[in-house]
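Course assignment 3, question 2. Fill in each field.
Student: A.L.
Task: Predict the tertiary structure for the chain below.
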Amino acid sequence: MTVEIRLATANDAEELSILNQEFNGGARRPILKISESLMKNSELVAVAVRNNRLVGFACAQISTSFCYEDLFGEITEMYVKEIARHKGIATSLLEFLEKRLCAHGVKEIKILTGAKNVGAIRTYTKSNYITQDEVVFLKAID
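Answer field:
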């Protein structure tokens, strides 16, 4: 099974909409909005392609702050279709984004995942990410 990892393009918007719905639930994101985001946004979106179909994606952001000298990277999303799991695709997506972030000057990458997401935790640990003691707070703003 050959899988290509590459940056997403606007042509991937329809399949990304489907994958994102599988990942996040709810209504599908509009294809036009995804296309616009891919063309205008500074977000890095990597896709995994097998047999000319997307089987996974991962997103990364680069942040700056006056508080820190170095750029900061964060992997914000990661999803691989269930039928394509346990084949190294998530690890390949991570490695691809890590190289891209490093090329932009990022020295440290953060990933947040659910405490019960055993598969993701195993993947991140295998990729040499270290668990940190942090508490995440979330507040919905109306």
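Instructor remarks: The mean pLDDT is 93. The domain at 4-126 is CATH 3.40.630.30 (Aminopeptidase).
Grade: pending
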